[in-house]
Amino acid sequence: MKTASFDDRLPVFDRVESGVRSYSRSFPKLFNKAVGATIYDEKGNSYTDFLAGCSSLNYGHNDPDLKKALIEYISEDGIAQGLDMFTDAKEQFLSSFETYILKPRGLDYRLQFTGPTGANAVEAALKLARKVTGRTNVISFTNGFHGVTLGALAATGNAKHRAGAGTPMAGVTRAAFDGYYGPEINTADLLNQQLSDPSSGIDAPAAIIVETVQGEGGLNAASPEWLRQIEGIAQAHGALFIVDDIQAGCGRTGGFFSFEEMGLSPDIVTLAKSISGMGLPMALTLIKPEHDIWTPAEHNGTFRGNNHAFVTARAALEKFWADDGFAKEVADKAELLADRLGRIAQTHDLRLRGRGMMLGVDAGSGERAAEICAACFDNGLIIETSGSHDEVVKVLAPLTISDVQFRAGLGILETTFAEAFATRNSAAA
Amino acid sequence: MKTASFDDRLPVFDRVESGVRSYSRSFPKLFNKAVGATIYDEKGNSYTDFLAGCSSLNYGHNDPDLKKALIEYISEDGIAQGLDMFTDAKEQFLSSFETYILKPRGLDYRLQFTGPTGANAVEAALKLARKVTGRTNVISFTNGFHGVTLGALAATGNAKHRAGAGTPMAGVTRAAFDGYYGPEINTADLLNQQLSDPSSGIDAPAAIIVETVQGEGGLNAASPEWLRQIEGIAQAHGALFIVDDIQAGCGRTGGFFSFEEMGLSPDIVTLAKSISGMGLPMALTLIKPEHDIWTPAEHNGTFRGNNHAFVTARAALEKFWADDGFAKEVADKAELLADRLGRIAQTHDLRLRGRGMMLGVDAGSGERAAEICAACFDNGLIIETSGSHDEVVKVLAPLTISDVQFRAGLGILETTFAEAFATRNSAAA
Amino acid sequence: MKTASFDDRLPVFDRVESGVRSYSRSFPKLFNKAVGATIYDEKGNSYTDFLAGCSSLNYGHNDPDLKKALIEYISEDGIAQGLDMFTDAKEQFLSSFETYILKPRGLDYRLQFTGPTGANAVEAALKLARKVTGRTNVISFTNGFHGVTLGALAATGNAKHRAGAGTPMAGVTRAAFDGYYGPEINTADLLNQQLSDPSSGIDAPAAIIVETVQGEGGLNAASPEWLRQIEGIAQAHGALFIVDDIQAGCGRTGGFFSFEEMGLSPDIVTLAKSISGMGLPMALTLIKPEHDIWTPAEHNGTFRGNNHAFVTARAALEKFWADDGFAKEVADKAELLADRLGRIAQTHDLRLRGRGMMLGVDAGSGERAAEICAACFDNGLIIETSGSHDEVVKVLAPLTISDVQFRAGLGILETTFAEAFATRNSAAA
Amino acid sequence: MKTASFDDRLPVFDRVESGVRSYSRSFPKLFNKAVGATIYDEKGNSYTDFLAGCSSLNYGHNDPDLKKALIEYISEDGIAQGLDMFTDAKEQFLSSFETYILKPRGLDYRLQFTGPTGANAVEAALKLARKVTGRTNVISFTNGFHGVTLGALAATGNAKHRAGAGTPMAGVTRAAFDGYYGPEINTADLLNQQLSDPSSGIDAPAAIIVETVQGEGGLNAASPEWLRQIEGIAQAHGALFIVDDIQAGCGRTGGFFSFEEMGLSPDIVTLAKSISGMGLPMALTLIKPEHDIWTPAEHNGTFRGNNHAFVTARAALEKFWADDGFAKEVADKAELLADRLGRIAQTHDLRLRGRGMMLGVDAGSGERAAEICAACFDNGLIIETSGSHDEVVKVLAPLTISDVQFRAGLGILETTFAEAFATRNSAAA
């Protein structure tokens, strides 16, 4: 097909695509190319990407080594779709995951290749926890996000997404996340009291599922102490402890897992987003061997054998996780990020949210946050919001972004905040 | 990583992969390459593929034109993961879908790019139907398969998959598929009676979801008359009519949709499996414009913007569906298939099942069917079973398979059936 | 309080009672007295009662022996409310139930005194069946009525009642009652096929619950053969077989249980309505000893010790069930009823419905049936409708009604039918 | 039937009654008579009743005026069972309820006569709230008890009762009752935060249902301030405010309703237990007129017309609630009770629980509480426990108990506590 101008090409989206699309409303350009932390539109304009595919592009767009590995694989007629058959690409991914991720961390997990979406990995985790324990109740947390298929959606907090179900959802009890009721109240104690009370009305749980940093719920970061307490509560009450590491994992918060060096040992971990390294659909449910009681194909899915993703995933593990160099780089960038966002927050008397390279500023309201993101986009920066009221301006830059580009992007952000608050300040003056 | 021998490499699967894997149990080889209808293992042995990624590889493995388009796209740093932003690749896919699929068939649908799994497309369809109608009940059919995430699983019939839920599922009422109770009973009449009776206990449905040919449930093919009656029942009772065309669509039964030339006009159609053309994860929910009432992002999913798949999907539409040449070829192959399987069925007094290039032979029992598939694999043919008791040997060859290879594969099948039944015959003699 | 005239007294109902009341709309008189089959309004008008408290007054109003026993009991300060403590009245009821009901029929049941409503007895039955089997699904039938509390309502077919739930209900799968699809189709075979098919989508049931005659659902009487087949299906599939005998039991269809002499042995039987004999609230769940696995108070309810009802219940058992005299009388009356209703049905080419003293005529439409009942009331006969569309005029006379009064009532009915159909006939002429 | 000795008569319970019975295990005597606050066993032993039918006998056993009214009614062939037809007895009850209860308190409610159990009144309340709001979620509280039919059980906290369901229950979200997390935490604030947060995962509620004093959950009494805040939260979030006054109402806590003089105006109130005055089964759902949107018979139940109960209920209203004399007497008795239990609590360093004539002492453990109750019974006092661990010894004496008998009973209790704690004290010394 020939290339028409954007004005000619835009209407097809309105004509043929469902109104459910969302990001294209904030960033109404036709994009056609992307490298590293930069996306280009068809007119050649470039944008710095502080969204990074919602953290599915932690290593940036089209990393040259991943790209090379994939092109080679395709060129040699490597298997694209392998269901759950043994393939070369899968074997190499498994081996590298064992070598670079599991062994060095002393972890013992079985990998379930679920349908290649995070929601599917969560569905598998919850199903398995119910099967293992013979219980149906699952504890999830305020502001948690775990996906929008019915089983995962039941565990998700967001009212708009929940309304999409069109039917009441069951099987999940909501507990308050760390700090939800303010610093005075230890919400883990509240949960423990309820689970310890045979008359509380909270049914004995199959699992407690938690994000260490709530990516969609407002970049709320749980403390290691609180997470350890939650894990202990799960154990004490016979429930599996599940960490949904889909957004916070794969280096986003520093280590490969977001819970490293916290002394945690989750029964199940879900991974997706950046696991393939190049943004290709892939999801994993990591299961402690003693819980891996699935019968063959009990949970299945046609695309669980997306071998292209296995190829790039392996390449990513080899490139970024064979030693601790990358983790250190990420730590440095996270420090820079904390400094710069901290300055913004301090200047405008706002709260910082999040952890590692998953940090944001609570702009005080969804309106102001949206306004700031829109102004950023006008200045060539793609950035989005998070939180109950979309009030947090969230930086999810590629972890591989160069310092120069990172500083430039943060500069745009700082200026935009300043301009946005100038009106208020002047009005208040 | 270095390449070890298979004996060295196999154990990683046992060590690190979940026991949920299934096809690798039937085909315990390490595969590393595939072209057209042929898969190769690492020792260079070739196998004819009558499984075709469970119909997700209708155009065969690594079709040269699709492969070329994809390599070019990646080489030029085309966007891999675009969330639901406007991208060049998506625009071209939408335009070609409009041009080659919708317009020629006089169809008007909005395309929702759901998370790239069939289950996710079904979840979106059911959620939307509930939202549109304000009702919660969904009618699905005996032996239906719609996926294993909780919302889709509720509509799925298979007990093993249902057991995986670990919790009771709600919101779905089961009706009998066409012919379920034998030729004497019109099951659509039964359903209509129940829905017309205010005291039947069947709540007014949001939707009736049906496969025209039940791919997993035993290759049961519904008649056009029955499908039209079901559509009429849906309309009469205020329910949306949903065709799950994930396995039967994309040419598998002849036309692009499995319900073409039947006079049907589904409110929602789900597509996945072969829509990307190359086996890459992609799924679509097609929605009549009047039902496209989603709010932005109400149903979302990180990988709904798998642009690699959009590229190959567009290439596939242009190559295979720009005119009716391919459909005619498929019709010819389907005729050959019907002849050859018909001969097998007649010889051994067995029943033929299915339609188009989705045809099988009911081997009488799951044990015999498994035995036949195993023997075929020993002879270089990959083929699988289907049905309540896995009793149907199911041919899902690539639609692009050459006549020579197709006949050879069918020859293996015929011989294997003959050998399998020889024992019985001799025993009976 | 002083007695005001009816015109003065009626408004309090509109002012203070909920609009949920129903029978008072059909019979808008103020009733103050009742003996046997006769009810009196405050003006002294008498009405023959063919409704009998919806079969909760099988022995008529204020039977002299029951009344005497109750007055004596109260006069002597017998315990009215005993929770589930051992009381004299309860002991005597249990002994007489054992002596007159269980022993002569060779039955071995444990009696659970549930909250004194039929719905509560059904709730207990379903809960226990789920507990015994560890399964959650329950099979109930089209047009079945089992009560309107949430657990029982899930098993009830009527759409109006179901709508009252205000929430979707789960845990029940609907099967077709005997004859539901006409005489050609054996609906038990359909159910058996579904339960035998691991891919039918019908989860293995905890119980099958059935009324032998559907009192609210249109007086559909199941055949003994069909019921035996259903019981066999329950056994074969590991489900408990529950007979809800709340409306059809206590002599209404001839024997004490509606299923006597059918060769059935239900695992659980529910009784309510006429069990107290005098219309006092009482309900029983009869449980085979091996299924009586309740922990103490696991299912409870304040009014499960309504000792007044135990007193009248015992008196009723002694008076009516110590020998087979009463059953024979009922059989004679049922014959008379069948003759007279048969004549009506034949004359107007209508269908007879029901069994024993639970018989009715399908008037062809709810409108006509309502019209006939209204005209009967004008002539001093209280009678109501039943069925999906309230199309069946249902005779539920006290079983103790005198022949003279019975014939007189039936005479009113016959005349009313004749008048109602006269218009139609003359119009058709 | 002749009267056998107790030794002869006891076995029938083991032989024929379900093991679900409970109170008879604590009080294994055969009772045959009761007057006021005294129950007699068949050997003529008398017991003071501090259980009072779990507060269903607030006016004592066989109050002479209620008994007289009932005997007269029965003697004159008053209607026993009237379904929901207009009867003299019902009219008089409605009028007296309007005159003595509603009007003096400035209340405007419609009375729904539900099936005569508290659970049924709760089921009706929840169904109606869902119907009125079009929402399904209901907020109930930790340690709440609302009955054991499936809809009510979902709102009940007790794990043993919940386990009886045999199936997961949905549609209820649990909030923490007043003081649940200790005096520092205002649990109403926690609930409000969750309901105000669109991402908390708590679906917008149809209703908030609360007991002002949790009768089964441990005599936890909510403060008026907390209750007003909860009512305000319900209003602010579009939910109905339901007070379940089944155990705390009918004078138990002083006024006719437990929430009088608190400035509350519940949308729905449930009553049962003592509403009939004599322990006869009766239940009411009081509905603000604007919410009375039931269609006729949408919620029904055969025994909703238990006219015997209407007769005694009217007599009780006239005798006890025509002026404020009774309420004052109850207040005096409550003061006495608080003094005496307070002394016990102080002596043994225990906590007092409850309010009005619904007061208890937390004995520290279920074992000790059971021991105390057993010892009381040996001394002629019937008393029971309450609470998550059955740790509260609960006084539910008839409100009409004479001072002499009340003091005597409390004396037994005091002595028993002293003896029970003597061991501990001596051991500690």
Outline the structure in words:
Four copies of one chain form a homotetramer. Chain A is an alpha/beta fold. The first copy, chain A, has two domains: 6-62 and 325-428, Aspartate Aminotransferase, domain 1, CATH 3.90.1150; 65-320, Type I PLP-dependent aspartate aminotransferase-like (Major domain) (Aspartate Aminotransferase, domain 2, 3-Layer(aba) Sandwich), CATH 3.40.640. Chain A is built from 15 helices and 17 strands. Chain A has helices at residues 6-9, 11-16, 23-26, 52-55, 64-75, 88-102, 118-133, 150-155, 159-163, 187-196, 224-236, 307-320, 325-347, 366-378, 403-428; strands at residues 31-35, 38-41, 46-49, 110-113, 137-141, 172-175, 205-210, 213-214, 220-221, 240-244, 268-271, 284-287, 351-355, 358-362, 381-382, 384-386, 392-395. In chain A, strands 4-12-11-10-7-5-6 form a seven-stranded mixed β-sheet, with helices on both faces. The first copy, chain A, has a four-stranded mixed β-sheet with strand order 1-2-3-15. In chain A, strands 13-14-17-16 form a four-stranded antiparallel β-sheet. In chain A, strand 8 (213-214) and strand 9 form a beta hairpin. The model of chain A has no long low-confidence stretch (mean pLDDT 96). At the A-B interface, helix 2, helix 3, strand 1, helix 5 and helix 6 of A face helix 2, helix 3, strand 1, helix 5 and helix 6 of B.
